Amino acid sequence: MRPRPTLAAKAQAAHPTAPAQAAAGIRAPARPTTRRTGDGRKIGLTVSDSVNTPETPQPETPGASIRRSRAKGEPRFPDGPKADPAGSHFERRIRSFQPRRSRVTAGQADALQRLWPKWGLDIDGSRTLDLADLFGNDNPVVLEIGFGMGEATAQMAAADPTTNILAVDVHTPGQGNLLNLADRNGLSNIRVGNGDAIILLREMLTPDSLDGLRVYFPDPWPKKRHHKRRLIQPDFLALAASRLRPGAIVHCATDWEPYAEHMLDVLTAHPDFENTQADGGFAPRPDFRPLTRFEGQGLDKGHVVNDLLFRRVQHVNQPPAGA
Asked: What is its EC number (predicted)?
């Protein structure tokens, strides 16, 4: 009786290896590849063709060389924001953010390389900031924590050029985009911070140095076990209050209603803040806060956006700011 072929033998017969193909006189097909013609069309080639075909030179785009030339271990942007500016300040603390390594466009990469030395700030906790020196003037300074792609920040800076905005985020594409917007529109009242806003408030800003705080659409951390990661908490508000001048406005906005209720409860209970609304509830969206594309999409889906406007309280035993 002839032995039955094994599964391995059947597989080899169905898909012969390269040596078996050569022994049988079967020529393996050339691997296809592509190249672009001078008019931008993509055409297919074989490997043997591509060896003897000169490549069409491609036009250089700003920032492209940054991505090509970076070797392993080198920073993404040698003259731009650091990957971990506060690496030496390791601490066991629950953070409200998660750094994201997203794709950076050529324009954003160019802005990070070209403009970061001028308008960027790595939050490393190594020094105390002189905000007048940072901005080049004594105008009021508002801290914005989390600015996304920066469109709303740029609009607010353009609408109020006498107010300086220190915008902090860890999202590299957003940092590059905001720098691009500031450069394109001549917005010299924007500085972009890279890193942890807690370290900035605690170690780099002085008491009564801020005239406002903006927290728009922070991560709501909807799962109950993650609520401790939410930014707006009593400890954070106590730290922020120590850096805000009496009368400064804390402005929060969110489209996640449970988080909005949490913010309202925490801010209302804090002795250093008072609600600007007589009824003690949410505020209508003020004219100075632009309607962002993200917010518009949420409204189209039926989401409710809640704004909160609270004022830093002047205590009886607290000297006036600047006294």
From this structure: 2.1.1.33
Q: Give the span between the Cα atoms of 239 and 315, in whole angstroms.
A: 16
SS3 string, 68-126, reads: HHCCCCCCCCCCCCCCCCCCCCCCCCCCCCCCCCCCCCHHHHHHHHHHHHHHEEECCCC
Cα distance between residue 108 and residue 104, in whole Å: 6
pLDDT tens string 143-198 = 999 999 999 999 999 999 999 999 999 999 999 999 999 999 999 999 999 999 99
State which H helix or E strand residue 309 sits in. strand 306-312
What 3 state SS string does 139-156 have?
CCEEEEECCCCCHHHHHH
Candidate list 122, 160, 219, 307, residue with the active-site label: 219
User: Would strands 32-36 and 306-312 be described as parallel, antiparallel, or unpaired?
Assistant: unpaired
Binding residues, as ranges, are: 144, 169, 196, 219, 223, 255, 292-295
- Coil/strand/helix, residue 49: helix
Q: Which two tokens stand for residue 241?
A: 């209050």
Question: What digits encode the pLDDT tens for the residues 93-139?
Answer: 445 445 556 689 999 999 999 999 999 999 999 899 999 999 999 99
Give CA–CA dist 14/69, Å, rounded: 44
Binding residues for substrate: 223, 255, 292-295
pTM of the entire predicted model: 0.72
Looking at residue 26, its pLDDT comes to 60
Q: Give the bridge partners for 167, in sequence order.
A: 144, 192
Question: From the annotation, which residues make up the binding site for S-adenosyl-L-methionine?
Answer: 144, 169, 196, 219
C-alpha 224/C-alpha 183 separation (Å) is: 41
pLDDT at position 182: 98
Catalytic residue status for 219: yes
Class of the 111-312 domain?
alpha beta
